[in-house]
Design goal:
The protein is α+β, with helices and mostly antiparallel strands and about 280 residues long. The protein is built from six helices and 14 strands. The radius of gyration is 18 Å and the shape is globular. The two termini are about 30 Å apart.
């Protein structure tokens, strides 16, 4: 209960109810505790544009002509929808053309912090409970699918394998190490890329804010924005290394030829996903 009293949930409280699958559920979506792997990098720009052809969006590019992309692996241990897992494949985009961000392992951070037009498209989404899948599809207008999922998580590593339960096909799998402390080289590289303005803006924000856009695959007539806010007890950011492994099997996303650049480990996560606007 103490985690639910955090200022994040005081500012964005549970203030409504929705009936989904014959069950009354609270809204907005709250995560009170859990862990997240945020794996960011780049993808083939033509493949990303093809994937967004039916949307009103265009991928954000870096100065090397690559699209910005990420994979999220989440183990949520306490939430208003109950304990659940999540795999998300995201593409960063905007509604209108914007200048490319300088190519860098941490280019995604610069785009999100310094470019108000930058948003994250939740394109591929898998959850391991029917309740969360229905909630994401019917209430948050996300193209969620049911997963069979295995996560083996220790203090030193994550191993995961996700399968689409309906199709019986593997989606993604990986193994990543978790450093015991923040590598100073990564912070120095990030600070140099963000610059003084970016670092100050990041440090002043009480919560990490990321606007998330749905696709039209879940039946939405338009791409709608939902604002998300995150606060973690512990965060470690590092570059993707030779000891890490990530393979995307889903043909739609394997075609993107994802090149991971960094890994952000978040523990003690508090998270709010507001209703789409």
């Amino acid at each position: 209960m103490m985690r639910q009293q955090h200022p994040l949930f005081q500012q964005y409280p549970l203030d409504g109810q929705v009936t989904i699958g014959g069950e009354t559920l609270s809204t907005p979506y709250h995560i009170y505790d859990g862990s997240i792997l945020f794996i960011g990098g780049t993808a083939n720009a033509r493949a990303a544009s093809d994937l967004l052809a039916g949307e009103q969006l265009m991928p954000l590019l870096d100065s090397d002509g690559k699209a910005l992309m990420a994979v999220w692996v989440c183990d949520f241990t306490e939430a208003n929808l109950g304990q659940h897992h999540e795999l998300q494949i995201s593409i960063f985009a905007s509604f209108s053309p914007v200048p490319p961000v300088t190519a860098h392992p941490f280019a995604i951070y610069r785009a999100l912090i310094l470019n108000p037009a930058a948003m994250m498209i939740c394109h591929g989404l898998w959850n391991n409970t029917e309740r969360v899948v229905r909630y994401n599809r019917e209430h948050l207008l996300l193209d969620a699918r049911l997963s069979r999922r295995q996560i083996d998580r220790t203090a030193a590593s994550w191993r995961f394998q996700v399968e689409d339960a309906e199709r019986g096909q593997r989606v993604a799998e990986g193994e990543l190490t978790v450093p015991g402390r923040q590598p100073p080289q990564a912070l120095m590289a990030m600070a140099g890329h963000l610059g003084l303005r970016g670092m100050m803006q990041s440090m002043r924000a009480p919560f990490i804010h990321v606007p998330v856009v749905n696709t039209r695959a879940a039946g939405s007539a338009a791409n709608r924005i939902a604002h998300t806010y995150t606060k973690a007890d512990k965060q470690v950011i590092r570059t993707f290394g030779p000891g890490d492994r990530l393979t995307i099997h889903d043909p739609r996303y394997a075609a993107l030829r994802f090149e991971p650049a960094f890994v952000q480990h978040n523990d003690g996560v508090r998270f709010v996903y507001l209703r789409p606007e």
